[in-house]
Amino acid sequence: MNWYRISTGQFGYPQPEDTYLEETYDLAAGCPTCGIGKALRNAFRFRSEPKAKHSQFLGLNWVFDEVFVRDAVKHVFEEQGVTGVAFTRPVRHSTGEPLETVYHLRVSVILPPALRPDQLDTETCEMPKDPATVKFLTANSSRLVRGPFCGAVKFNYPQENDGQITMPASAFVSAPDIVRMNEWFGSGGSAGRPVLVSQRVKDIVDRMKWRGLMFSPIEIVNE
Ligand SMILES: [Zn+2]
């Protein structure tokens, strides 16, 4: 049984660029400094229909844990009975009307805590200790030196050939085809829960020759 973390290219910025976090998420559900715990509340607002006509999977800049798909993906996933997903329309910022060429892939099933953290770099939500870092962040009026600090830990996304996400097979027993990890990933003020898909989903994407989705294998261990 294979599982993959998925990611996309980034096209455009969530709107309004200065306040999309407050507009899109319930930030009170989480930490305002590190972003851990924030909960999606409203539809993402796009400036316009995304171009990238040949990509069936797309993402927005700054938003690393949400995937948007073309209509064909919705149709085939539904036809094939892919579980763990729903599809909603993002909206055009200027009008508030639903977009017509893209859906938001909504993933709401969260796995139990299962990550084996051994190989990954982490960040703790706390006042930075390095004076040079503090000076730099202060000069940039960063929230990362103002707090509040919740003390929670997030994992940095592994780069190519640099650490891997390792999880026990037991985490996936009774999981649907598309899930979120329990653990939070990101850096600085950015935090999100990675989306994982089963081999069955990857097979469908490969068979359809859809473009725009990257698959990073999860290392599965038997306890
Ligand atoms: Zn925090």
Description:
It is built from 4 helices and 16 strands. It has 223 residues and is of the alpha+beta class. The protein has one domain. Strands 13-14-1-15 form a 4-stranded antiparallel sheet. A 4-stranded antiparallel sheet has the order 5-6-9-7. It has a two-stranded antiparallel sheet with strand order 2-3.
Features:
binds zinc ion, 4 helices, alpha+beta, 23% strand, 223 residues, single chain, four-stranded antiparallel β-sheet
Write the SSE topology.
Layout: E1 3-8, H1 20-24, E2 25-26, E3 39-40, E4 45-46, E5 57-58, E6 67-69, H2 71-79, E7 85-88, E8 91-92, E9 103-107, E10 122-124, H3 131-139, E11 153-155, E12 166-168, E13 178-180, E14 195-198, H4 199-208, E15 213-217, E16 219-221
Parallel strand pairs: 4-8, 12-16
Antiparallel strand pairs: 1-14, 1-15, 2-3, 5-6, 6-9, 7-9, 10-11, 13-14
How far the N terminus sits from the C terminus, by CA atoms, comes to 15 Å
Q: Tell me the fraction of residues in β-strands, as a range.
A: 15-25%
Largest sheet: 4 strands, antiparallel
Q: Please state the CA-atom Rg, rounded to the nearest Å.
A: 18 Å
Mean pLDDT: 94
Count the beta strands.
Answer: 16
Bound molecules: zinc ion
Quick one: overall form?
globular
How many separate helices? 4
Question: Would you kindly provide a brief summary of this structure?
Answer:
The protein has helices at residues 20-24, 71-79, 131-139, 199-208, and strands at 3-8, 25-26, 39-40, 45-46, 57-58, 67-69, 85-88, 91-92, 103-107, 122-124, 153-155, 166-168, 178-180, 195-198, 213-217, 219-221. With 223 residues, the protein is an alpha+beta fold.
